[in-house]
Amino acid sequence: MDQNRVKQILSSSADIVVKYNGTSVWIDNLHEDGRTATVHLRGPLEERSDVDINELTEE
After folding, report:
1. In whole angstroms, what is the distance from residue 6 CA to residue 43 CA?
2. In angstroms, what CA-CA distances link 22 with 11, 25, 34, 43?
3. Domains in the chain, please, with CATH?
4. What contacts 47, CB < 8 A, 6 or more positions away?
5. Which BP terms in the Gene Ontology apply to this protein (predicted)?
């Protein structure tokens, strides 16, 4: 996924399905470097991870 699409998803009110390694995640924020983002799993777990946005895919 590219930086512009991550920004669009973050500013959208729609429920856009994003996956990281095949698992649905929410994007929390895009880092200043424009290459990484903080995400957390959809569901009851709130564990957050910093990931490379190139590894995010949109369903």
Report:
1. 20
2. 23, 9, 22, 15
3. 3-58 (2.30.30)
4. 40, 41
5. asexual sporulation; sporulation resulting in formation of a cellular spore
Task: Indicate the burial class of 51 (C-beta count within 10 angstroms; 0-12, 13-18, 19 or more).
Answer: middle
Contact by Cβ (8 Å): 53, 36? yes
CB crowding 1-26: b at 16 or more within 10 Å, else e: beeeebeebeeeeeeeebbbeeeebb
Output DSSP code: residue 32: T
Write down the residue that tokens 């995640």 correspond to. Answer: 25
| Residues 13-43: tens digit of each pLDDT | 999 999 999 999 999 999 999 999 999 998 8
Q: What is the reported pLDDT for 33?
A: 97
